[in-house]
Fold this sequence. Notes:
CATH topology of the largest domain: TIM Barrel
Structural class: alpha/beta
Helix content: 25-40%
Bound molecules: manganese (II) ion
Radius of gyration: 27 Å
Strand order of the largest sheet: 1-2-3-4-5-6-7-8
Distance between the termini: 72 Å
Number of helices: 16
Oligomer: single chain
CATH architecture of the largest domain: Alpha-Beta Barrel
Largest sheet: 8 strands, parallel, barrel
Amino acid sequence: MIRVFDTTLRDGEQTPGVSLTPEKKLRIAESLDRIGVDAMEAGFAAASQGEMEAIKLIADSGLRADVYSMARGVITDIDAVIKTSAVGVHLVIPSSDLHLQYKLKKTREEILKITSDTTQYAKDHGLKVELSAEDATRSDLNFLIKMFKSGENAGADRLCPCDTVGVLTPERTQELYIELKKSFQNIPLSVHCHDDFGLALANTLVALKFGADQAHVTMNGMGERAGNASLEELAVVLKAQYNVNLNIKTELIYETSRLVSRITDFPLQPNKSIVGENAFVHESGMHTHGILANPSTYEPFKPEIIGRTRRIASGKHSGSTGIRASLNEMGIEPNNEQLKEIFLRVKSIGDKGKRVADADLQAIAEAVMDLPMLRPIKLEEITVVTGSNVTSTASVRLNLNGNILTEAATGVGPVDAAITAIKKAVGIVEPIQLDNYSVKAITGGTNAVTEVAVSLSKGDRKSTAVGVNEDIVIASVEAMISGMNVLMTNYNNRKVKEKP
Length: 500
Ligand code: MN
């Protein structure tokens, strides 16, 4: 059985610009536990008081997964781990001459003794020891083996040759693990890869094939520099391509990815494998045509496997089949002539370099087909209070099909407060979820026009909408409401307005 050792909360937290409070770390730890990681490295206990508290909070929270803390080959680091009540220590000691000479200023003999002494000390205090050689992949192999032997003799539970700067290739990974397996038959091996050359996943797979049985990974591939091998890629490639199941509940991958991205404030590139915004979006005519006939034509695996749905986008590359499918979701059924006209207008907007959100597509269809503009939700008023010593608060009055809804909410900032208030007001009637929010300044300067794009979902239905305004709050509110209106639009059973 291949085990997952998640290090989102340690290597992942070392992502430049990311820093988490103990409460946030706990929320991520709980979601990692829910998805089924076998072990998690919750942090580096000796780094700070807050870090130690975070690890203790997680270790004491009754998770099913084994909780580890990182430590260097220093007794006081291990003492810090002991105080957290973590079950294990991820003991990281450099093995390359480069690190010995420039970072530690220690000899190889000293490193062997440190490895033996600290492993022994951790074991004496009842800790499981995951012994990692840092920069192992640029180390002298004979010395690496010697160092691992010292650890094994002192009672280490596992060995991990870390590819700290991501220099492995699949071929070198194979050689390394074959060699290590010859010397270490009675102690399990882990693999820890970084993605500096985009090979982290490939190298991890090769290591698993040639002797490792535990992979160090992070959610969303977070981590130092180009990041670590990613949990979602490993779990899905093993399931879909190798028919190997981990303890990971893959159907929770998308929601876990979103939660980690939100809490760490670390956005994902749209074309990120598995969890990127575009991973199941189809725009080009040829592709949507195929997808609508049989999704396997242009999808390597079903989006349901990771708990998400596919979406057909409209734009320059659209085909008429995809546009018709998007309109049908709103209950709009154009005849062939109308569809042709809608299709031409979508293309001409796309040609100007603009994205065509679902809300735009709806407006185009209404104009072409002379439909009454159905906008169930209208904004009557919104007030936002924000500042440096006040909690951002928003109150909103909406008109939903003639009924007035009033709500207020607080948020981390004015946009969050406003969106939360709208979601609360509409949520009473319709459970609509905000899946993605992105903002860009169209022009430079503080008076820039802001463009906010949102993706929303209601059950299986999805919608995208854009709001443009000088005021970021208003732009956000406009995008939200127009996206919600798409989801609530249903032209079925509605008479098309007769032309006079
Ligand atoms: Mn690392």
